[in-house]
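Review this chain:
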Amino acid sequence: MSLVASRSMLIRLSLLTLLATSGCLVEPAGSLTSEQLVSELSTLQSGDTLTLPAGTFSGSFTVPAGVTLRGNSTILVAEGGAALLVTGGTATQPTRIEGLTILTPAVTDRAVAAITAVGGDTLELRDLTVIAPTGAGIIVQGVANLTVERVTIDGQLTDASFAELAAESTPVSANEVSIAGLIVAAGDGIVRANATITDLTVRNVAGFGATFIDSITNWTGGRVEGCAGTGIYLSRSAHSWQGVTVANGRSASNSGAFVTGFGVIATESSSLDTTDLEIASIKGIGLFQSASRSQHLGARIVGNDSRGIWVQDSLATDSIDPELLLDQSVIMGNRGAGIQVLDGGGLVFQNGLIAGTRTAPVFGGLGGSGVVGDAIQLGGAGGIGNQLTTAGSVFLGNGRAGIAAENANSSLEASGSDSLFICGQGETLANWSCSETAEGEQQCLRTSGPIVEAGWSCADGAEGTTCTTTEAALLAATPQRTTNSATGISDFCGDALTQVIDGNRLVASSGLAVAGATPGWTPPLAAAYDWSCTTSAATRTCRQNASDFDGQSLDNPTAAGGTGWSCEATDEGRLCTWSGFGVAAGAEVGGVADFAPRLEPRIVSRDNLLRQGVINSVTFDVAPTRIPSLLGGARSVVGEDGLVGNDGALGTRAVVGEDGVVGEDG
């Protein structure tokens, strides 16, 4: 419809409003009631454009196929069903929804979606703000071609409201929270729905930020953040992403609803190709991949509270067409493993950095239980196994091993051993003196005690670490550690890392450059100090009771309390020895003899591996436990027995429960 025709429709709507008023009362030009909007929409035909006036409209509005609905400071509030019930148009005359703010109720006994779209060929959603504190944001099923541009979906979950939900013993329902931000699914007669997404933001949803079922999607720019449960979920889908960030995911270990957080899940034969993907600060696993494939260029997987990447149940072991490929990527500061692979097939890691992996307890696998903290960990239950191929990379300062491998079907390969470096801790504090012994041990000595707040005098010796003060204000205090400057990249790496350029890339003597910004993430300060203090006259004396377990001494040379050190009190001072491994491999792992990383080439036996911990062999059964009713059997997303009814209502469907999006077992 032309601009003139669009303006004419606005005038006609104003006339309808005037006819509906009495006496001399004149409504402002462009005003419109919700009831009149329902009526007016029913008269539109494919190709028409309706531009709404400024104002707020409450109800459930049906947009016919091929119609453009455009807002102008317009707010729609869902009432009695989805705010918008939409059908896709044709390729030449798509349905378009543009420039609207759409809300679901903050309190309700009948949860709804903001937008429910079912069927048709083409739908375009642009410049929308969806605020959905309950129910769901946007649900699209059976639309062959979907375009999403400059759309924000906000579930309005706060830290306080999440804490209340996580403490509940009853199922968390859609009447209380937004259980889904965006869902895109194929429908009848569509093998895979095509979606093109640009600048999509989904935040603060309690359930699933963005879910794709049987979709082919190209996503450029956007962010999924603050979601409880899962940020992005892929099932039987093929995706290409550029510049997508998933961050600040929530979980609650005592809750049946949000036991483990996931940044991204790719499952059931999905494929994912990304450029400049960032997954950061997830209270759980960064990227979880099951029976699927993914390739990443310039990824940053940083500071997640469990594994950075978890790969399992692959279909084939092949380094030419690997299940997981990372190029020019940084994986830093995750817990337990940078990359954990369980019967994960082919893994290629090249031209990248894995650093600062924190230790974590693990149960199962070799030896029962222990502590892990590996850059790359290869294990499994004896299935297809794993093949790791790596080149041009640096594994730096990980808590246990650069590479830890077991499983008779696993193998290690290096393409050009001179370009693979496995080093000890990367940053050491300025008050430690570090060197390498004649036996090749990496050791650091401290004589002056830790750097603490002003007013204390500290020293290290055979009796441990002691700090004293005579200042009156500190006579009832304990020494408080202050921010320490670090020496930068440790000399332990020799010529592997010669410099840091503007904090943006690491350069090795072989010419290797790790592209992409090196993250500014710092591990949380460990509770390294347990002081025992006495006061005599005007002097306060505090002695540190250090917890010096083998390989896990917390008061060590690493900036911000890293792990991987064994420390002891000596006459010379506090002496710490790096206890991490270069490569730890079970005797049955193939290719070890030819795998020769530089600087820490130690290939240790299974016994030594067990001395430090185990490798997990338990896989996640994630699909049926995370979204059973959404993905299982013949159920649809929208329909009589679907997640959402034909009217866009979710009813009392729970996030957790017998018929919930998440099973009662989490």
